Fold this protein.
Amino acid sequence: MIKNLYNFNFTKNELKVILFVIIILISGFSIKYIKYLSSNNSYSSFDYSQTEETFKKLSRGNANSVVNDSLEKTDTIKNPDINLIQKLRTAEDSLKFKERKKSKKEEKLKPKSININTASKEILVGLPGVGESTAEKIIKYRETHNGFKKIESIMKVKGIGKKKFEKIKEYIIVE
């Protein structure tokens, strides 16, 4: 075999490296085969059912039940995964972002109570995230464009993007 390798014009050092790699591969496959035989001809499989249940609960938004379930099960586990518990609590917190607290401005406002085509600067400042300069921009925009046709068109005012619109859309109307 070595004489056949000399036909490829390999140097002695290159032949040593090739033989070393072949020996490593053969020994690796041998170790894997021995482990396979010692485990009664079957690999131990991981039970994904718990992970699948956790995923389904999180995707349905039941983060509280996932956290509670994992906390109950940590009593029976020898080494509870603290990182998993922290990740579940973080997931619970991220699901709560939808239930954000209302600001002081929002608590005073009633839904669909401000007509952005007729509201004064003082009333517009009462909207969440709208200050005096933004209120002035809203007034200037409605004067130059003959008012707003729909509430979404308020996003054309500089300084009002999607996030700010999401905060104020439940309080504004166009008539």
Observations:
- The CA atoms of residues 52 and 97 lie 24 Å apart.
